[in-house]
Amino acid sequence: MKKNVLTLLLLMVMVLVTACGNNTANNGNAADTGNDAADSGNAGSGDKLKVVLLIPGTLGDKSFFDAANNGLQKVKTELGAETKVIEMGNDKTKWEPTFNDIAAEDWDVVISGGSEITEMFNMTAEANPDKKFINYDTDIEEAPANMYNMSYSTNEVSFLAGATAALATQSDMPNANPDNVIGFVGGMDIPGINAFLVGYIQGAQYVDPDVKVAVSYAGDFVNPAKGKELSLIQYNSGVDVIFNVAGGTGLGIFDAAKEKTKYAIGVDSDQAMLLKDTDSEKANLIITSAIKKIDSAILGAVTKLQDGTLEMGKRDVLGFVEDGVGIAENDIYTSVFPADLQAKVEEVKQKLINKEITVDNAMGMETSEVEAIRNAVKP
Hints:
Structural class: alpha/beta
Radius of gyration: 29 Å
Helix content: 40-55%
Shape: globular
Number of strands: 12
Order of helices and strands: HEHEHEHEEHEHEHEHEHHEHEEHHH
Distance between the termini: 124 Å
Strand content: 15-25%
Number of helices: 14
Strand order of the largest sheet: 2-1-3-4-5-11
Largest sheet: 6 strands, parallel
């Protein structure tokens, strides 16, 4: 009897152990399946590069900031990256805290641009050595070890814009007048803007040593009304083509050009094409644009970073040879600007590419030198 009871007890224990074991196995498999699914999802998001763009201002300028956003969109579509754009607004006191907040999040690459933000952006990069940073446009050479900087040969592309403007003003184009006077409206009187100005003046003088250049500064990059006001003054004084180097303020230049039926030259992006669908009359007055190929530069830098070939801790200057700058040669340019003048512009461009023409750069100039150049062509 005792033997039978003992045998029965042993059988019961075995059943319980087996049952528990099966339940544990089932729970474990369910948990493993769930964890595998979660891990798979995490691996997917971990493998997908996470890239954020911080705009020190707002989108909608159809120029500098919009070009950077176009670059981010290319990163998303062509590289399959997870992306986000953050408009930091025009209150500069909010920029540094925003940089620090975003750097603390789980982005792999943080992108921003402009010499105004470079110092605080560098500090953020130094404080976050595990992250990668890209400054898509700065004239400051120094860069932390985890940052890659870019700038553009704006003096050279502006030289080409100046040659275009000088050819236009002395042409028989319908909206050109007999006075060989061209215009320039800049956002601020600072080295980065004056790099455009000096190149523009020298390009115009290359075509016509006696050309005159009216120069105005808005003191603002986000004030189209001011841009229009300054441009109307220039157009009323005899200027028939104005070079816009004023960011969002420059949108007012195109308003003035339309009102006076005069010409303009855009900047950073192909501004005629950006306005063509909403205001073709205005777009047809933008002969060309001096383009910084910011979108392609951002895509190229992130591609190299993803491939492990991007050389961090340095700044590259992108010119004609690197396909970092160029003028817009769109349908408007080819239809509005006479073919013989296009040929002359192409000749100048090839000389710039071949380094047959040397263009001064205001970035290395004293203020007095820039002032002397401005005064020499003052109408």
